[in-house]
């Protein structure tokens, strides 16, 4: 893993120790997933504390979605342990799933239902009574600007509308942890603003959010802590300031504040090895036929 501690101020080292000592909302030890001979996730150790907005980043194929599927019970790990809200996931899967919300990459909505019908189904699945389900459904649809789409089937929704409905379904039961896999992909600026407003409100009320996204500007704006995975291994983990201090060199202009994109690229290039180096060299080549 990228050694942040040796490149940061003593306070950053102390804060990392303090966070690890706190009770983690999400904790993994040696989390590994293999598909035959291919190792998608290897020996990942995570600690996410209550109230954190945690961004989980990596290049395509790095193991982000596989990790989220294991953390949410959609995929069993090959080895390692997962604890969520202090419970061992393997031994308390049903209780853990009652306490979390998930917006998977593919959303997995039932296209032949209306938005109201779908939220009613999800509310019943989580054990909410009819009155609570109806009230929360109405509030969520109004908040998501979907209240006027009562007769339209989900399959006829735009991609952005489906994203908002998927998030509504993920939070209708008031989860303590929300897992989001690319929630802003294909979402327009207005819908993205609505989603951000809801997520910030959840953090303010003490929920924990675990987010993966390729839109690094959004992650930098929303997240308090970031983990970076590459080739299935967690290579960096810490607060934004710890990561920023960790990649700073004497050659940097001390008045320049590194963006998350710059931090991400530096860490990936440093830890990526020969394969990524070859890819970077290839990407720098010009395509003559483009002029």
Net shape: globular
Give the assembly state of these chains: single chain
Number of helices: 11
Level of helix content? 40-55%
Q: Which band does the percent of strand residues land in?
A: 15-25%
Characterization of this structure:
- It is built from eleven helices and ten strands.
- With 291 residues, it is an alpha/beta fold.
- It has a six-stranded mixed β-sheet, with helices on both faces. Strands 2-1-4-5 form a four-stranded antiparallel β-sheet.
- Helix 4 packs across helix 5 (130-143), helix 9 crosses helix 10 (260-271) and helix 10 (260-271) crosses helix 11 (273-284).
- It is globular, with a radius of gyration of 20 Å.
- The model is unreliable at 2-21 and 273-279 (pLDDT under 50).
Topology:
Layout: H1 10-21, E1 24-35, E2 38-49, E3 53-57, H2 64-71, E4 79-84, E5 87-88, H3 93-99, E6 100-103, H4 115-125, H5 130-143, H6 159-171, E7 177-181, H7 189-204, E8 208-212, H8 216-222, E9 225-230, E10 233-239, H9 240-247, H10 260-271, H11 273-284
Parallel strand pairs: 3-8, 3-9, 6-7, 7-8
Antiparallel strand pairs: 1-2, 1-4, 4-5, 9-10
In short:
This protein has helices spanning 10-21, 64-71, 93-99, 115-125, 130-143, 159-171, 189-204, 216-222, 240-247, 260-271, 273-284; strands at 24-35, 38-49, 53-57, 79-84, 87-88, 100-103, 177-181, 208-212, 225-230, 233-239.
């Amino acid at each position: 893993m990228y050694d942040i501690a040796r490149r940061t101020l003593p306070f950053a080292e102390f804060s990392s120790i303090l966070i690890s000592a706190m009770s983690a909302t999400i904790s993994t030890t040696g989390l590994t997933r293999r598909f035959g001979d291919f190792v998608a996730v290897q020996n990942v150790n995570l600690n996410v504390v209550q109230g954190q907005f945690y961004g989980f980043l990596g290049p395509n194929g790095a193991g982000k979605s596989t990790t989220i599927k294991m953390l949410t019970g959609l995929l069993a790990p090959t080895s390692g342990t997962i604890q969520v809200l202090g419970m061992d996931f393997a031994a308390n899967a049903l209780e853990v799933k009652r306490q979390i919300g998930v917006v998977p990459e593919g959303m997995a909505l039932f296209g032949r239902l209306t938005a109201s019908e779908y939220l009613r189904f999800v509310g019943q699945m989580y054990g909410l009574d009819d009155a609570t389900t109806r009230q929360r459904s109405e509030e969520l649809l109004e908040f998501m600007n979907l209240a006027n789409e009562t007769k339209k089937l989900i399959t006829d929704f735009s991609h952005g509308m489906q994203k908002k409905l998927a998030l509504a379904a993920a939070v209708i039961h008031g989860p303590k942890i929300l897992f989001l896999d690319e929630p802003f992909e294909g979402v327009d600026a207005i819908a993205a603003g609505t989603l951000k407003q809801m997520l910030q409100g959840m953090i303010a009320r003490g929920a924990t959010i675990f987010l993966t996204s390729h839109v690094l500007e959004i992650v930098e704006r929303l997240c308090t802590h970031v983990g970076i995975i590459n080739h299935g291994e967690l290579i960096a983990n810490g607060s934004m300031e710890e990561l920023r201090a960790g990649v700073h060199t004497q050659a940097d202009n001390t008045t320049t504040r590194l963006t998350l994109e710059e931090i991400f690229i530096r860490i990936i290039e440093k830890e990526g090895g020969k394969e990524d180096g070859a890819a970077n060299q290839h990407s720098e080549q010009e395509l003559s036929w483009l002029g």
